[in-house]
Amino acid sequence: MTAITEKQAWWKESIVYQIYPRSFADSNGDGIGDINGITDHLEYLAKLGVDVIWLSPVYQSPNDDNGYDISDYQDIMADFGTMEDFDRMLDKAHSLGLKMVMDLVVNHTSDEHAWFVESRKSKENPYRDYYIWKDAKDGKEPNNWGASFGGSTWEYDETTDQYYLHCFSKKQPDLNWENPVVRKEVYDMMNWWCEKGIDGFRMDVISMISKDQSYADGIVRDGLYGDFSPYVSCGPRVHEFLQEMNKEVLSKYDLITVGETGNIPVSEAELFANQDGSELNMIFQFEHVELVPGKIGKWTDKKPPLEALRKSLTKWQTTLEGKAWNSLFFDNHDQPRVVSRFGNDSEEYREVSAKMLATLLHMMKGTPYIYQGEELGMTNAHFESLEDYRDIESINAYHQYVDNGILTAEEMIRYLKEISRDNARTPMQWNDSENAGFTTGTPWISVNENYKEINAENELADPDSVFYYYQKLIKLRHEYPIVVYGIYNVLLPNHPNIYAYERVLGNQKLVVACNYTKEEVACSLFADYDLDGEDVVANELISNYKDHKLGILKPYEARVVLYD
Ligand code: GLC
Ligand code: CA
Question: Which of 59, 157, 383, 534 is spaced 20 to 30 Å from 305 by Cα?
Answer without folding.
Answer: 383
